[in-house]
Specification:
This protein has helices spanning about 1-20, 25-45, 50-70, 75-100, 105-130, 135, 140-160, 175-200, 205-230, 250-269, and strands at about 165, 170-175. By secondary structure, the chain is mainly alpha-helical. A two-stranded antiparallel ribbon has the order 1-2. The chain starts with a helix and ends with a helix.
């Protein structure tokens, strides 16, 4: 099991390196595919992946990605995105009303929520990559999420005593959580030193430390949120696509929450 998990992890790192370094259309297409797979995993939990609410979700997730890709060409992106989500809400309520009582309220809400939770939030990896300096900034998404997870695990194993969320994840500790945040901040500083030295990036060590700490904290919320949905529906993993890790949502649960935070902190700081 450990060997399988390790090999899968190495493969994921290689894919991340190739797609993120390439950027552009390759990264965009990869994130779109990952989003659709993740959306399918979530919709299967609620039994709507091949039904009208789920199909509406796929269509509007695809429309959202088209808008993201064409954002630079649109005169006022806020209006276009608001129009899209208003249309999505109306479409979902039309499905609910005209097929009543075929679907429960939580299924309709899950279809709407899923597009934001998976497609919209993951798209910020691409949106961070196309920012000025995004070639350096985008890696903080993975450093914060996966780095925090590793640091939290190590600290938790060494000194973890107080359970953080015992009903969701009995092995996670408060000490591990704090260690993960501190570790992500330190990794942010080390990464800043590296890109300044070898990439002439000229980035602020303090900014990267703050982004690392904030991203690490939010990544833990993302991890626990994904666990909460699984516990609510009595499932162990979202899927079996990644051997030893589960599905897309099992591996990218923290990345989903971290990506938007890194994007907006990069813009603000």
């Amino acid at each position: 099991m450990f060997k399988t998990r390790l090999l899968s992890g190495i493969l994921l790192v290689i894919i991340a390196l190739v797609t993120v370094i390439s950027g552009g259309n390759i990264l965009f297409a990869t994130l779109f595919i990952i989003s659709m797979i993740g959306l399918t995993e979530l919709y299967k939990v609620f039994g709507i992946w091949n039904k009208a609410p789920g199909i509406c979700g796929y269509l509007f997730a695809a429309a959202y990605y088209i808008l993201v890709y064409a954002k630079a060409l649109l005169p006022d992106t806020t209006d276009w995105f608001m129009l899209l989500f208003m249309a999505f809400l109306i479409c979902m309520m039309a499905v609910f009303v005209f097929s009543f009582p075929a679907y429960r309220t939580e299924q309709i809400l899950a279809a709407f929520f899923g597009v934001f939770y998976v497609a919209v939030m993951l798209s910020y990896v691409y949106q961070t990559r196309i920012l000025p300096g995004g070639v350096f900034m985008v890696w903080l998404v993975f450093i914060c999420s996966w780095g925090c997870d590793t640091c939290a695990y190590c600290v938790g194993m060494l000194i973890g005593r107080h359970r953080m969320a015992p009903r969701l994840s009995p092995k996670k500790s408060v000490e591990g959580g704090i260690g993960g945040i501190v570790g992500a901040a330190l990794l942010g500083i080390l990464y800043a030193l590296a890109v300044n030295r070898w990439g002439n990036a000229g980035v602020s060590l303090l900014s990267f430390a703050v982004i690392g700490a904030a991203g690490g904290a939010i990544s833990q919320v993302g991890d626990l949120a994904a666990s909460a949905i699984k516990r609510n529906h009595d499932i162990k993993d979202y899927g079996k696509l990644i051997p030893g890790h589960g599905g897309i949502l099992d591996r990218f649960d923290s990345v989903i929450f971290t990506a938007p935070i890194i994007y907006y902190l990069a813009v603000l700081l």
